[in-house]
Amino acid sequence: MELIASFQQYIEQHQLFKKQDRLLLAVSGGLDSAVLCYLCHTLQYDITIAHCNFNLRGAESDADEAFVMKLAQQLHVPIFVKHFNTLAIAAQQKKSIETTARELRYQWFTELLQQSKLNDVTPLKYILTAHHANDNVETVVMQFFRGTGIDGLTGIAQKQPQLIRPLLFATRKELTQFAQDNNIAFVTDSSNASNDYTRNYFRNDIIPSIEKVYAAATNNVLHNIERMQDVAFIYHQFIQNVLNKICQPNGDAVHIAVNQLKAMKPLASIVYEMCKPYNFTAAQTIEVIKLLESDTGKYVLSSTHRILKNRNWLIIAPLQPATMAHHVIEEADKTVVFSNKKLLLQHIEPTNFEISNDKNIACVDAKNIVYPLLLRKWKQGDYFYPLGLPKQKKISRFLIDQKVSMIDKENVLVIESNKKIIWVVGHRIDDRFKVTGSTKYILKLHLVDC
To answer: TM segments (predicted)?
Structure first.
């Protein structure tokens, strides 16, 4: 009964959950989850079982389901069962069977918790899985060879907001011995013997081969996981302090001074952590470092973002849609909504006119306005007469002179009337439409966030 005491001590020591919490146990019917059920039931925790039938092993999958149904009946606890067409979903999403099954499983567990919060007086609070110490070792060894960095060496998370793994302290050998001593029945997944799945290959071949040379390899990795968790904590504190100093948020973008970044050490690790939240890979770290010495305009792409070199800055910004729809404005005293902004148009009397320093407000002489107006992104070849200048200027040249970054250039809008640009939005109006002493009516344009 030593495992029962260790289980309770582990829960209390790490404050995983409380006696009054309702727990959703992920139960496949295998050794690990069967022991988890026995432990929770023996200690009188309030449990509900959830079983996934992935329909991957024909009659064997159905036999596992029947076993878990019988287990729930024997323990007098509620049970949820769900079937998945895993092979078809994996093919449709172009993912591995392992990844697909994992995503389907956790998505369903989360849905069960959400439904319970809506329908039950005492809702289910946590999902419990039966991952144990050997699973942790396998994960870390796989991550090491996969190259996931320091976080990959800290092991499986013990507790996440809704997910708890209370058996990480116990080895497979301890669970097997406990099941034997207490006559705990369980099913054996025949696919565990196959190396078709990556984890099985590490479990069945790689780690046993290492243990032939280093008998204590599993325990050594477990001790290293504890050390690496401490190291990772210190590492992330340092990295966050650096990023707070060098990263300057600017709307949806982040600006980083090139010279400041170049002076940082260790540069590769800082660049990697700086880029990781924006879906850049570890392999792209070198490409980003090369940007520090590149010409303006060079960039590196992720699936969602771009890092652009712009003079003495690196700019990280979301990828923008290739085009923006033109918005036709039929009349004044109207609001045009687009993306996450809106444009307010209002006629005002000259007596109410005050020059505004707000770059998102423009006032023009209404007598020169011909409707409909057109709101669109600027394009090459566009020109206007910037306020205060007697001759026309291409918008591309104007934006360069204003030192607008390449990423910000892509988002610059213009408003045109009768094929004449009246306002480069957020920058300057056209001199031909300025308010003068003879102006009788003023059109006020105001760009605001939604």
So the answer is: none
